[in-house]
Amino acid sequence: MHKDLVAALDIGGTKIAGALVDGGGELLVRAQRPTPPGGTGEQVMAAVGEVLVELAASPLWAAARAVGIGSAGPVDAKAGTVSPVNIPGWREYPLVQGVREHAGGLPVTLVGDGVAMAAAEHWQGAARGRANALCMVVSTGVGGGLVLGGELQPGPSGNAGHIGHISVDLDGDSCPCGGRGCVERIASGPNIARRALDRGWRPGADKDVSAAAVAASARAGDSVAIASFERAARALAAGIAATATLVEIEIAVLGGGVAKAGEVLFAPLRRSLREYATLSFVQGLEVVPAQMGTDAGLIGAAAACGDVRHARVARAGRRVRTPSAEGRPCP
After folding, report:
1. What is the extent of the structural domain holding 266?
2. What is the pLDDT of residues 184-201, one digit of tens each?
3. Which residue in 118, 219, 253, 309 has a CA-CA distance of 20 to 30 Å to 110?
């Protein structure tokens, strides 16, 4: 019998993934649905329900003790609601209540997707063994999570470390969040591609206009594509340096689709970071790629949940304080 089994959900603007995860971080059963584009709140929740129904069909479901959710944000862990910028149908949507109903009343823990990624990278990935880390998802959006003093710090609402909506350009473009010049508005995949297209970059015969296609052009020497990634790198560097100066992180871990661009992103990021992280106590800051890949959200959602947390703490020798949907630490 598998121990410390948790049902995990990773909810984003493109897909809704689910898994049954054991205490060692192994994904034993998987399910996935596309996030309905432009869907109503109930249509998106129906897709979440389909994922949970598929997981519940496994004989292992009977051993699941809880459900952990890592969702695009912002989230409100106290209220159990979500208002993801990239899921317009969900505004203060009662996600925890809906998941609990589909999961037969199991306890539910909700955190932002960046916090989930941080939990995964600190448990088994690039931030393992580090006491102070910022872990970032750079993809359709830009999110993040913090580990401080060896503990995951999701904050009272589950959003702490949400670096994507720090303003790094006071006169920059308006952001869907209501701010201006946010890191996400400059460094997310769609905005990298948008900026390249606006400045004359054109896709190849396959008509691919994604950030991955821009990255391929940059590797081939296209100056407009290179400039778009350099601009994204500067925005990320400014946000990372500000975070490091505020809370003295020692490492920044970048994952997500945009981070797969490799040195097209990381080389200018490290150069720009030297310009922004100038104080003595942040000059040694490391920036590294994430190691957990596309499963980070699921593993982190499980790690952020109390049932798996205890198994993890026994190995790591540290506690991880994570709010439940009611705002209390997980049992």
Report:
1. 128-291
2. 999 999 999 999 999 999
3. 253
